[in-house]
Amino acid sequence: MKKIEVCCGGTCLGRKSDEIFDYLQEEYKDTDTAVHMCSCLGRCKKGPNILVDETQVYHYSKNRTIKESIENNEGEQYNRYDNEEKLDLGSDFLGDL
Ligand code: FES
């Protein structure tokens, strides 16, 4: 079973991550993939962001749908608990707190 989390922190939501959430929920509704919302992933500048299986982060792209990107394993490595260097503190990350 795959787990997809769509960031609905302030920055990603401002970039319409709620529409991505709706899209992915519809696409995966009859599968064993669970689609949830989550809080800020600390990558605001690249958002809207989507986390898959807590290890791969995907950024919205106009070139492919998020679903195509996920199915092609095009995400970047992500560790929720070991990402101090990757946190996007220079932008509006703190605005989500
Ligand atoms: S609000 Fe989505 S990564 Fe920060």
How would you characterize the overall build of this protein?
By secondary structure, the protein is of the alpha+beta class. It has a single domain, classed as Glutaredoxin (3-Layer(aba) Sandwich), CATH 3.40.30.10. The chain contains 3 helices and 5 strands; from the N terminus they run E-H-H-E-E-E-H-E. It has helices spanning 10-14, 17-27, 66-71; strands at residues 3-7, 34-38, 49-52, 56-59, 76-77. It has a 5-stranded mixed β-sheet. The chain is globular. The model has no long low-confidence stretch (mean pLDDT 86). FE2/S2 (inorganic) cluster (FES) binds next to helix 1.
How are strands sequenced across the largest beta sheet? 2-1-3-4-5
CATH class: Alpha Beta
Shape: globular
Distance between the termini: 31 Å
Number of contiguous helices = 3
Q: How confident is the prediction overall: mean pLDDT?
A: 86
Q: Could you tell me the strand content as a percent range? A: 15-25%
The arrangement of helices and strands along the chain is EHHEEEHE
Radius of gyration: 13 Å
Q: Give the helix level as a range of percent.
A: 10-25%
Spell out which ligands are present.
FE2/S2 (inorganic) cluster
Computed structural class? alpha+beta
Which keywords apply here?
3 helices; single chain; binds FE2/S2 (inorganic) cluster; alpha+beta; 97 residues
